[in-house]
Amino acid sequence: MGMLCSVIKFENLHELKRLCHWGPIIALSVIAICSAMAIIDAVLWYWPLDTTGGSINFIMLINWTVMILYNYFNAMFVGPGYVPRGWTPENSQDCMYLQYCKVCQSYKAPRSHHCRKCNRCVMKMDHHCPWINNCCGFQNHASFTLFLLLAPLGCIHAAFIFVMTMYTQLYNRISFGWSSVRIDMSVARRDPHPIIPFGLSAFAASLFALGLALGTTIAVGMLFAIQMKVILRNKTSIESWIEEKAKDRIQYYQTRETFVFPYDLGSKLDNFKQVFTWSGIPEGDGLEWPVLEGAHQYSLTIEQLKQKADKRVRSVRYRAIEDYSGACCPFTKGLRTFFTTPCTEEPRIALSKGDLILATRGLKHWMYGDKITDLTTDVKKPHAARLGLKPLRDSSSQFEIVLDHQGIIS
Questions:
Q1: How far apart are CA 275 and CA 148, in angstroms?
Q2: Which helix (DSSP H) or strand (DSSP E) does residue 370 occupy?
Q3: pLDDT, tens digit, 9 for 90 and up, residues 105-131
Q4: Cβ contact 322:337 at 8 Å
Q5: Which of 6, 38, 64, 320 has a CA-to-CA distance to 235 between 20 and 30 Å?
Q6: What is the DSSP secondary-structure string of 291-334?
Q7: Helix (H, G, I), strand (E, B) or coil at 218
Q8: How far apart are CA 257 and CA 250, in angstroms?
Q9: Phi/psi zone of residue 346: left (φ > 0), alpha (ψ -120 to 50 degrees), beta?
Q10: How far apart are CA 107 and CA 182, in angstroms?
Q11: Is the peptide bond preceding residue 192 cis, with omega within 30 degrees of 0?
């Protein structure tokens, strides 16, 4: 009992809560359905275990399932790795190149970003994936990418089993209850006939599993291609976006500067080794990174500071004219507000009438920005119209707000 308690720790049990989410529930359900139906179809109706090929096929199906689940749970429970709370660079002068996270009470290490869902600064954050209900980052990037590779491969094998099972059974003997179809195809006929007949329900289940397998192959395969594209360039999805914004900023202000992404080592193999290693443990500590020869260690973080300053310059201040509880689906704020609610899982922030909003960018019905908590901050008074601002996202003072044009304020 003592040994069991030493293995099962409180934080391990806490991590199990990640399974109680629509993403893992759907993902694990698809894996279970495709794996179970492939094994059942192969053993009962297509390739029985009493043959050498059937035994090898059965072992391969089990192997796909084990490897997929192993990498899936690694990506989920090992996690991306977080910047230690209170972290500062060894050289205190380097703090001027870094952003400070008020939530984590530490500086953001290079390539790290604060995740609103995890409420922590994630090392080399790529994105927060709802399918694993965790971030993809420094420590689990390899496991996550392997999962994206193995899932389509396993689904392709399963789809082959489904197709061959339905093919052989359709041309051998199918009893749908109202009639029996017999076509003379001795190659497809198996003797003796299976004990469990391949009826309408089995055909429907196999067809449904085939659709899941094909859909998963296409969707997850595309995600794998995207991940490999950024890995071979030693980037993350967020860093690719930062690089695009850097080009836009330079073009907008005509600064004639050149932004060089510092972490692309110039060789795809070297970039690949930054994520995939024989030990399974990524290189480095997630806080300091090798850079391209001649590049500055903090080129990316300096660019982020420039973009943040630019965002502040072009921001506009608004005042909330209604209270908002922070509900995910605001039924009481009108149909337009309800139907334009963004499809995100990020928590919403509650506002009181009179709260100040610093909007940094806007869409047709939404605006993004900060809630001003320091009233002594000197913010330029906006020229804007009277807007019903209903915030819909809370994440270290970041949120979304619905625009409801209702007149002009002085």
A1: 14
A2: strand 366-372
A3: 999 999 999 998 899 999 999 999 999
A4: no
A5: 64
A6: --TT--TTHHHHHHHHHHHHHHHT-EEEE--S-B---SS-GGG-
A7: helix
A8: 7
A9: beta
A10: 73
A11: yes
Strand locations in 137-234 (E): 173-175, 180-182
Pairing of strands 173-175, 134-136: unpaired
Rounded CA gap, 128 and 136, in Å? 6
Tokens encoding 20: 């109680």
CATH assignment, 315-402: 2.30.30
pLDDT digits (tens, 9 = 90+) for 32-49: 999 999 999 999 888 888
pLDDT per position as a tens digit, 298-322: 999 999 999 988 888 888 888 888 8
Asked whether the predicted pLDDT for residue 66 surpasses 70, the reply is: yes
Q: Is the pLDDT of residue 152 over 60?
A: yes
89 and 251 in contact (C-beta within 8 Å)? no
**Which pLDDT score, from 0 to 100, does residue 13 have?**
61
C-alpha neighbours within 13 Å on the C-beta side of residue 55: 3
Round to whole Å and give the CA distance between 24 and 335. Answer: 31
The span from the CA of 185 to the CA of 366, in Å, is 63
Name the residues annotated as catalytic.
129
CA-CA distance, 123 to 138, in Å (whole number)?
6
Closest residue by Cα to residue 134 from 126, 68, 65: 126
Rounded Cα distance, 18 and 40, in Å: 30
pLDDT at 357: 80
